[in-house]
Amino acid sequence: xxxxxxxxxxxxxxxxxxxxxxxxxxxxxxxxxxxxxxxxxxxxxxxxxxxxxxxxxxxxxxxxxxxxxxxxxxxxxxxxxxxxxxxxxxxxxxxxxxxxxxxxxxxxxxxxxxxxxxxxxxxxxxxxxxxxxxxxxxxxxxxxxxxxxxxxxxxxxxxxxxxxxxxxxxxxxxxxxxxxxxxxxxxxxxxxxxxxxxxxxxxxxxxxxxxxxxxxxxxxxxxxxxxxxxxxxxxxxxxxxxxxxxxxxxxxxxxxxxxxxxxxxxxxxxxxxxxxxxxxxxxxxxxxxxxxxxxxxxxxxxxxxxxxxxxxxxxxxxxxxxxxxxxxxxxxxxxxxxxxxxxxxxxxxxxxxxxxxxxxxxxxxxxxxxxxxxxxxxxxxxxx
Length: 384
Known about the structure:
By secondary structure, the protein is α+β, with helices and mostly antiparallel strands. The chain has two domains: 6-57 and 182-196 and 226-383, no CATH class; 65-161, no CATH class. The protein is built from 14 helices and eleven strands. The strands form two sheets. Strands 1, 2, 3, 6, 7, 8, 9, 10 and 11 form a nine-stranded antiparallel sheet that branches.
């Protein structure tokens, strides 16, 4: 396995009134940190948004799927590829997947849990049938199970992982051989300041009301807040490379795709009502050889509203990075940042200067990604 390399991604991003990720009451999730209430977006929500973002930018065969309906998906492939009706294809699909020992769900054909796999992996399982599909369909259940039991179904699911599985891992509690250790850790996003839950009271008018009718056809409320969020994720490059079969170039591609998608994605909760999509004001990447370092302690004391939450949050993050490096003596291998703060603007001058001290002069996001890849490649060559 590649020597330890951790790529930390730090993001400061302001969102307008929104409900990105709701709790069981339908309100934005929250957490108490530093003694005050903060807006929170769960790591699961942002991981899904990240996965969807990079799936939108790769071919279908490189995408991943998470579903309980894997039998149905395999049935569709076998039926399509071999001209079988769905009943016969379904019997073959069930026989193939029975080798894995997946626990069955309450609904017929479903598994008891979501299974995360690559679309290309399921295509490969369907291809194991080869030109025997018609012959297999003619067999009784017991004979069919016997006929496919030697096919390498489990091996197909444990090799050739797509980027999604390689990054985020796979957990199947009762079938350890299917487990994949995640290469990515994602923190819950937290507001850098105290937040208050607010409610949007809305009404909808019935366009076909009679002239003598008044009042709303619908009344409701939606909880929301607005926040400047600190988002953090870290990628273990050695684990990522291992998950991709030792392919360093594939791991570099996956890392680049993750940094892009984690930075630019956002959960879609109530997006039609709030249009909350924004771009970060700061993205910083840090390459370390010691351990990942979450800089959330920069915001243990909530940021004050004056003179500005966004700029103060970025400056506080840079100061925390500088302090942590000086105190612990673990100088990162590389650091860089893209941000919107300038020294020409008096209001952001201090922030821009502190960011330069922490991460060097700002670079465009595309250049940050390119340079990050080159620096890691150089580090790997030095380790060889």
